[in-house]
TrEMBL record:
Residues 390-509 are annotated as: Domain IV, binds dsDNA. Oligomerizes as a right-handed, spiral filament on DNA at oriC. PANTHER family: CHROMOSOMAL REPLICATION INITIATOR PROTEIN DNAA. Residues 417-486 form the Chromosomal replication initiator DnaA C-terminal domain. Residues 173-389 are annotated as: Domain III, AAA+ region. Plays an essential role in the initiation and regulation of chromosomal replication. ATP-DnaA binds to the origin of replication (oriC) to initiate formation of the DNA replication initiation complex once per cell cycle. Binds the DnaA box (a 9 base pair repeat at the origin) and separates the double-stranded (ds)DNA. Forms a right-handed helical filament on oriC DNA; dsDNA binds to the exterior of the filament while single-stranded (ss)DNA is stabiized in the filament's interior. Residues 92-101, 138-150 have a biased composition (Low complexity). One of its GO terms (cellular component) is cytoplasm. It comes from Pigmentiphaga humi. GO terms for biological process: DNA replication initiation; regulation of DNA replication. It is found in: Cytoplasm. This is Chromosomal replication initiator protein DnaA.
Amino acid sequence: MEDFWQTCAQTLEQELTPQQYSAWIRPLVPLAFDEAGAVLRVAAPNRFKMDWVRSNFSGRIETLAAEWFQRPVQVKFELDTPRMAPPPPRPASTAPSAPAGNGHGGGNGHVRTAPAPHAPAQAALGFPADPVAAVNSAAARAAQRAAESPRPAPPRAPKAEPSEATGIYERSRLNVELTFENFVTGKANQLARAAALQVAENPGTSYNPLFLYGGVGLGKTHLIHAIGNSMMAENPAARVRYIHAEQFVSDVVKSYQRKAFDDFKRYYHSLDLLLIDDIQFFSGKNRTQEEFFYAFEALVALRKQIIITSDTYPKELSGIDDRLISRFDSGLTCAIEPPELEMRVAILLKKAETEGVHLPEEVAFFIAKHLRSNVRELEGALRKVLAYAKFHGRSIVVDVCKDALKDLLSVSNGQITVENIQKTVADFYKIKVADMYSKRRPANIALPRQIAMYLAKELTQKSLPEIGELFGGRDHTTVLHAVRKISESRTKQAELNHSLHVLEQTLKG
Ligand SMILES: Nc1ncnc2c1ncn2[C@@H]1O[C@H](COP(=O)(O)OP(=O)(O)OP(=O)(O)O)[C@@H](O)[C@H]1O
């Protein structure tokens, strides 16, 4: 087994970057090989590394093991905390700023490296969802004392504990499962993915901020987690934070109530990568926007990366300060569109593979043809089919799929109906379907309603009076006006044209 592990580690060392090898493979320890069950047990120093290695490298290690042992081998990862040798004491001044080791030293693949300490941000990194807890924590108090001291002590490198990687990872709030490797690419997202990769490789220096926008369930969150995970894989000590905009709002409110803005600022201004999801939730929250503006300015000035997602492009965001909108627009803005048929099939096949299930292609095509609006919906359908087949002890074939998805299919049976259009447009613009029939006329409702009328005329066989009837009994001249207005505006307004394109794609599949 030792011989196998040495060969395996050497192969991976050649396949990975030195940083990846040092961070993920070198700390692993082979524990035992169970001949009877063909199970290889491997220990990882902490849960973060264990999860990461399991998600990203177990397949490759199993392939290498199968080649070596001449039969399929299962690799099981387990925690090995008690076996961890404490890291050798290091004088603070020689503490490295990246994982130790260049991938060539250490030889036997067992030397463990600790992530780099980062003294000034130590307390800040611990900034939890509740900022006051940070003030109450010993680390934060120590940092505060240091900050208040008339002659600040030189930054002391904290001892690199084995659990530090776990701590840093947990504080990042990243989901280790969302990676570039399991993000399926197609026309709908290739630009966004390319930009995300570029930013992950050159944080802070290529596109800052990177602004990703698109409809519900299209992979924005997945992609920004992938960037964070990739950055942490390269540099496990990086100070990365994923946060949903609503949580940021709540952090601001708590800091405000408890007068803890210094800690708030210290934390957010000290990050290497800030991933902020669904920024449209900042709408109308002036104090939040102000704090975010300061954090934005501070991070960009320090060439730290900011990545923002939203359901719409910057200029279309409502209730957001103009100075923020112009900053969102100052980097790179990329759309993620609904996936086309082939991509939906590829996503289903990939998801099934991840579940360890063989999904016949015709079943994947069947699901993909009928469910078109977003990837989350596809995932839900796949889960339903797999559970149904398992529960009824049947194999995964199209007929089983039809039974399992009966409810969903009756809603989206491939026909474009006015009801479908109303629902799709309402979802897209985040208004209630009821507003399609209502008499209310604020602009945020009137425009989507006109768009839905336009699409109803374009995509269905209904007459103008019939459409008017389905939109709350409106006159046919109202529908005609909407159709003319939208068809003319789409030739002049690129963003409107883009939205219509997305809606048409969603409806047509
Ligand atoms: N291209 C893709 N490849 C693989 N999985 C994907 C892809 N796009 C989306 N997914 C999966 O679909 C689900 C929904 O994606 P995600 O949460 O990233 O969407 P979102 O755009 O952030 O949606 P929302 O606006 O609702 O937050 C996730 O489980 C994600 O892993």
